[in-house]
């Protein structure tokens, strides 16, 4: 097979193949020589040295779930350890048969993310994988040259971070502060880029794939300029990526210190949310006791009535920046959908802007009224 410089070959003793990750993928290359595979880096460098966050998975899959998490995955995700690699192989076969030109990773660890996110439903997992790649094609401003160094200004500003300890349910807390962003400072899509890179890092550990994550958003300082800037079409893209185009389970969205204008902001977002996701939004206002019922104080920084020390923005920034090479391999490569024919029903339908703008004109008056 002719390989580009961004592709790689992994050879295992006594076996032949272009990308061999354990028992489930040893014979696929001989059957489908035209498939290009993106290989995750083997040497993860200093990123593996952040003791508070799990390191990336090894190139050859080996389950890292505890017996308790395996039981949880069985109950909530229909994951059976004895069938795990068989299920991965089934999804891999579907990709190679139905989309042989798709430039996607096919290793076990990567495909498991999509199976777990869709409770091991092969068809839904495949659709999620296609949406995952389609999102990149539909929104090049976000995904072109996507690496941590290009969003350092967002991280330094404190727009987002990840709290160092998972909550009692084992879920990492993605902490957002939309009020830290001012439209005149940089484009809104830079915030989306930083969020996406963070999600990509968060989803690597198998614990996150099973437990999901929690979002905590502090809306202190959010005014009309932030609320009206993205607009419904941009909001729809963000929601579509998080809800239908990324293999992560968002279990709760906690909003604190929301201003009156948040009613108008949520009116923009809600039409694009699935009912189950909309029900996971919890508005706490300035009532920290209400927040503590969702996230106990021992897991929160002092600024939010917690006992976990002062809020540390630098730790997550360092972790992401240490993963620069990892993200270059993952994102700074040729278009994975080049030459691929996708189904008619995909994310981000073209030509929807007119309807969205009409909707936005109606919602803008709501924003001003709330403001």
Automatic annotation (TrEMBL):
CRAL-TRIO domain boundaries: 147-312
Gene3D superfamilies in UniProt: Alpha-tocopherol transfer, CRAL-TRIO lipid binding domain, N-terminal domain of phosphatidylinositol transfer protein sec14p
SMART domains: CRAL_TRIO_N, SEC14
Pfam families associated with the record: CRAL_TRIO (PF00650), CRAL_TRIO_N (PF03765)
Domain of life: Eukaryota
One cellular-component annotation, GO: membrane
InterPro entries per record: CRAL-TRIO_dom, CRAL-TRIO_dom_sf, CRAL/TRIO_N_dom, CRAL/TRIO_N_dom_sf
GO MF annotation terms: phosphatidylinositol bisphosphate binding
Name recorded for this polypeptide: Alpha tocopherol transfer protein like
